[in-house]
Write a structure and sequence with these properties.
The protein is of the alpha/beta class. Helices cover 35% and strands 22% of the residues. The longest helix is centred in the middle third of the chain and has 14 residues. The chain is globular, with a radius of gyration of 18 Å. The two termini are 25 Å apart. Bound molecules: adenosine-5'-diphosphate. The site of adenosine-5'-diphosphate has 12 residues, from helix 1.
């Protein structure tokens, strides 16, 4: 079976010359939940933007990124975007319709569904994101945690087989974080989660990849990686004391 995500020798340089990714390779099997760790500026967001063809600006056919076996090329980028649901780091970059229901309906509306099917998808996605009954609410009046969940609902409404999240719990209070983790646990899609929230990684992920300066510096079972204090400190990661003796897997 093809891996859900396969990245081979991926490099990327921004216009100003910043080398954000240097020869990144890894793959994610269908059904896995993988944490993407690394200090600020290590290339996590840049990498995620490559997974549904937002980057590079000019898609080529070199096959550095393959989704379910298919290279991300101009010809199949639309298909890839249906398969890979990307939840941005900042909800305000993602939400742009006046009401929650309209926002969540935006994705499914691009999918040649009937209006009844779109409505059913919206209801289902709102429920999955813990926002049942929030459809009529104004997106700009939602709390931060609710905005994050509205973004998740918008992505789930497209029924992607791969879910990619960029720091989904940053800026959430402890309860918001707990609620968001519980929602993620219910979602069966393949997941890749860029995060500084090591508690989330321990609770949800079986495997983690550590990026530093645009390069993969570690890839392995979460417990092994997080127990490697030398590795963690070398790459600006610190395992919270509370997790030191916690081995859920
Ligand atoms: P992370 O998500 O791990 O914090 P990023 O992918 O955001 O890392 O950034 C990787 C590198 O690319 C950093 O050096 C960052 O400053 C740089 N970078 C990010 N976005 C841009 C951009 N739009 N233009 C130029 N450099 C950028």
């Amino acid at each position: 079976m093809n891996p859900a995500i396969q990245v081979t020798h991926l490099s990327y340089r921004y216009h100003d010359g910043t080398e954000a990714l240097r020869g990144v390779s890894f793959s994610v099997t269908t059904g896995e939940c993988v944490g993407l760790l690394g200090p600020n500026g290590s290339g996590k967001s840049t990498l995620l933007l490559h997974l549904n063809g937002i980057l590079p600006e000019k898609l080529d056919a070199d096959g550095a990124v393959r989704i379910l076996g298919q290279p991300v090329t101009p010809d199949n980028v639309e298909t890839v975007r249906r398969q890979v649901g990307l939840v941005f780091q900042d909800p305000d970059d993602q939400l742009f319709c006046p009401s929650v229901a309209e926002d969540v309906a935006f994705g499914p509306r691009q999918l040649e569904l009937t209006e009844a099917e779109v409505k059913a998808r919206v209801e289902k996605a709102l429920a999955q994101a813990g926002l049942a009954g929030f459809g009529h609410r104004a997106t700009h009046h939602l709390s931060h945690g609710e905005k994050r969940r509205a973004c998740l609902a918008g992505v789930l409404a497209c029924e992607p087989s791969i879910l990619v999240l960029d720091e989904p719990t940053s800026d959430l209070d402890p309860r918001g974080r707990r609620e968001f983790k519980a929602l993620l646990r219910q979602i069966t899609a393949t997941k890749l989660i860029a995060t500084h929230d090591l508690e989330l990684v321990v609770e949800l992920c079986t495997r983690a990849i550590v990026l530093d300066r645009g390069t993969v510096v570690a890839d392995g079972p979460v417990t092994e990686l997080l127990d490697n204090e030398e590795l963690m400190l070398a790459h600006g990661l610190e395992r919270p004391h509370i997790l030191r003796h916690h081995h859920p897997h």
